[in-house]
Amino acid sequence: MKTIKFIIIGLLILSASSIQAQVSVNVNIGTPPPPVVVVESPKVVVASPPEWGPVGYDNVEYYYLPDIQMYYDIRHAQYIYLSGSHWIRTKRLPSHCRHYDLYNGYKVVLTDYHGNAPYAYFDTHKVKYYKGYKGAHQKNRKEFHPHTGPQEFHHDHDHHDNGNHGHHEGHGKGKGKH
Description:
Layout: H1 2-28, E1 62-65, E2 70-73, E3 78-83, E4 86-90, E5 108-109, H2 122-128, H3 151-156
Antiparallel strand pairs: 1-2, 1-5, 2-3, 3-4
């Protein structure tokens, strides 16, 4: 009798492990592993700086142009200037600055400002970076030469001043470059 009990217990153990193996096999068959999801943090996209922008500052958002007391928004390729009591954004230099030479004018690179309104610090900027301000020497991303420069600058940006005024007004009056 003891032998029959051992055989029955043995069969039950074998059946139980066989059933568990079948259940385990059935659960795993055809079930794909969960997908691996890689989430990257978003990157701030900054437009390319203009050709007249200084070398070495590819990830800044704004320049301050002290000679014309204006900002340039690199991300949106827009000039920002004060008109009356309002700040205006425009793709082109305003008419009163159309002869300003962006290639030879000094650009203050605002490395410490990130936002949408750099002009919030205009009162500080216009005092610290007064008209005629020159900081460290700057090299432009590309040089502009009036006779061999990129064609698009001759046609699309007629506001560049190459400094060769010839017999035009202001020449010989001791005022220097505009």
